[in-house]
Amino acid sequence: MPPPSPKRRTFTYKKANTLEIPLDFYPPDSAHNVPILLWFHGGGLLQGKRSSVSPHMLRAVHAHNLALVSADYRFAPQVGIAEIYEDVRDCITFIRNKLPQLAGEGVLDASRLAVSGSSAGGYLAFLAGLYVEPKPTVILPIYPITDPLGLFFTTPQPHPFGGKAADVKALERFIDVDSEVVANNEEDSARSGMYMFMLQEANLGSLLRMKAGEDRWRVAKKVYECGLPPAYVVHGDADTAVGVDQADEVVGVMVGCGMEVVYERLRGVNHLFDKEESVGMEKMYEWMMKRL
């Protein structure tokens, strides 16, 4: 029999003006001093929701006796990458300082923290590894964005899954930087077209308010200066939504700097492959649990 689905509790980890930003907390049954796996969803930092956790990650709660946290964060272009990173930092501060009390005495060992994320969430995992102090124990970026100003995101791309071009008219209110700031959206929201809009316009850097000549948000360029914790990176070489060259560059720099990194560069595999029920990511979890 498969392990039972973990029970979810939701907490607000931060208020940004009047916007409450939540996280979902999935502890294992009868937890005692378990490590924490924090995961950020994808969507180009433009769209998405914390509930889009892959099946393998929910199964990992009981299979590996860990507590899973899935957190929302504010979206561009209504805020920039600097504000989104602040959400990541504040989320980790909440997990370390407040979540153990909310979870109950002896449930969590917040000193053992893995930070993961998929696509744009993988980017946030890398930023946490670069800039959050103390650093997470390990990071686990899955098909990550690593450089919004890299070739893939500055070259117009076709629809990654063969769909239609983005309807710019339908997206006007989400493109407007003065629109309401949000930290998630439902799947049937028109906002779910923002990633395709970004790919066809090749404008991720400008949507994130990145300044020309500023390297702070380009991961590979900050690895040597800031360092990274041990990393397990997964990316398919047939990814049409985030070019595999994004992961290649950062892994190459980590190797060149003598940092600990494992790279599963999957042959013929596209974006979102791990959303399938059959995908287990067991090598990643085995590596992670040896280090937590």
Structure characterization notes:
- By secondary structure, this protein is α/β, with parallel strands linked by helices.
- It contains 10 helices and 8 strands.
- The chain has helices at about 55-65, 80-95, 100-105, 120-130, 170-175, 195-200, 205, 220-225, 245-255, 280-290; strands at about 10-15, 20-25, 35-40, 65-70, 110-120, 140, 230-235, 260-265.
- It has an 8-stranded mixed sheet, sandwiched between helices.
- α9 links the parallel β7 (about 230-235) and β8.
- The protein is globular and about 50 Å long.
How far apart lie the N and C ends? 27 Å
Instruction: Name the strands of the widest sheet in spatial order.
Output: 1-2-4-3-5-6-7-8
Q: Describe the largest sheet.
A: 8 strands, mixed
Average pLDDT, all residues: 97
Q: What is the β-strand count?
A: 8
Strand content is 15-25%
Structure classification: alpha/beta
Order of helices and strands: EEEHEHHEHEHHHHEHEH
SS field, number of helical segments: 10
Radius of gyration: 18 Å
Low-confidence stretches: none
Characterize the overall form: globular
Helix content: 25-40%
Organism: Friedmanniomyces endolithicus
Protein name: BD-FAE-like domain-containing protein
Pfam families: BD-FAE
Keywords: Hydrolase
Topology (elements, then pairings):
Layout: E1 9-16, E2 19-26, E3 34-40, H1 55-63, E4 67-71, H2 81-97, H3 99-103, E5 108-118, H4 120-131, E6 138-142, H5 172-175, H6 194-201, H7 204-207, H8 219-226, E7 231-236, H9 245-256, E8 261-266, H10 282-291
Parallel strand pairs: 3-4, 3-5, 5-6, 6-7, 7-8
Antiparallel strand pairs: 1-2, 2-4
Helix pairs in contact: 4-8, 8-9
Keywords: Hydrolase
Domain BD-FAE-like: 23-132
GO molecular function: hydrolase activity
